[in-house]
Amino acid sequence: MESFDLVVIGAGPGGYVSAIRASQLGLKVACIESRKTLGGVCLNVGCIPSKALLDSSEKFFELSHMKDHGIQIEKPKLDLKKMIERKNKVVERLTGGIDMLFKKNKVTRIEGKGKLLKADGALQKIQIDLNGSLKTIEAKNVILATGSAPTQIPFLKVDEKTVVTSTGALNFEEVPSHLLVVGGGYIGLEMGSVWARLGSKVTVIEFMDSLLPTMDQEIVRDFKKTLEAQGLQFKLGTKCTAYENKKGKALLTVETKDGAKETIEGSHVLVSVGRTPFTEGLGLEDAGVTKDVRGFVPVNDRFETNIKNVYAIGDLIGGAMLAHKAEEEGVLLAEQLAGKAGQIDYALIPGVIYTDPEVASIGFTEEELKLKNVSYIKGSFPYLANGRAIAMGKLGGKIKILAHSHTHKILGVHIMGAQASTLIGEAVIAMNKRMTLEDMAHACHPHPTLTEAMKEAAMAALGHAIHI
Description:
By secondary structure, this protein is α/β, with parallel strands linked by helices. The protein has helices at 13-24, 40-45, 47-63, 80-104, 166-169, 186-197, 217-229, 284-287, 323-337, 366-371, 387-392, 420-432, 437-442, 451-461; strands spanning 3-9, 29-33, 108-111, 113-116, 124-130, 133-144, 148-150, 163-164, 178-182, 201-206, 233-236, 238-246, 249-256, 261-266, 268-271, 275-277, 310-312, 351-353, 358-363, 376-382, 398-404, 410-417.
């Protein structure tokens, strides 16, 4: 029986990164993945393909609004098939790249479904279904990194044609005439934005009274107004209660919290109400690995489950269900298994919504600081006062910085605007290095760039912004 120092089940961002890092540190590593391509949900049907369509749809939209730049273009014609093909090529290139990284770093790739068996002494046995034939290997350590799947609504049966998850929304064969988005989170807003730019009427139905309740609400209010100006419609404080497909039309019955009901007719329904940890077929019960009431796998501060030498990371263990969070956990765990020390500050995991404008945040929101009775000061700087933003024609947005009122340590940064996903990286470094407002304000930023808005927001918090 073949034996490894480490076997990783799942080749998504957490799994493939942990496998590569462990191999770099001298461990004999195998990674089991049931898909034919590596990269998990993120690279195959999540982060990467959605960003490819977001980028393509943004270009299509911009071409329709170039008169102010002195560029005359006839009405652009959409070739949706070609756009989807480009998205698929992006996915193919990146998933193939992970395959090359496995070979480079001597990670043994096994295509099949991994299942834990009961431990035999110090070694954990893993049964692999290789498309019908079974093989068993053993390992000193196992990492479960199987990620998550879209949460289902019982009466909204997904067929990935009319009622779709994000997977189906990435592969529509025609632009939906009216896309009903159930759930106003990251995925729903991003995919809604894609199809709105390409011509869909988009209605977002959200059960909560506010979009994105965990984000800074000042930014969220501005963000909602911007999306509404782009044509997205919102029904907040509203739940879906029934669905009917009538002559090819999607009829969705919704109800507000005060009991008012209505039926909305759409062409397609996107179900994006969150994600559920994926543990099906993993053999957790046979191996004795426990789950909590929500299906997550509890772990200790070393990512170890209740079974010795069986670990779990990423979406399986809860917290922020983000690819970069899973990657950080994967690297840290691999290094721990190789005898190295390290830690993750979960308060400093950034979040990004890749709409236009983008929204990005890290650290505490203003609401959280008030709830914790933390004394704070804040400063913000609008894009419409930034020279580069004006030159780009990207005036909608702001950068907001929160800091401790006495120490001036930066406690949170929240951005809505062009390139927010890149700008937040500056805040990530600043907060990881425990920088203050003065550190940010006194750092020379290149001109003209959007990063100057970060400097000016820090200066605004100190009471001496220059350009507002």
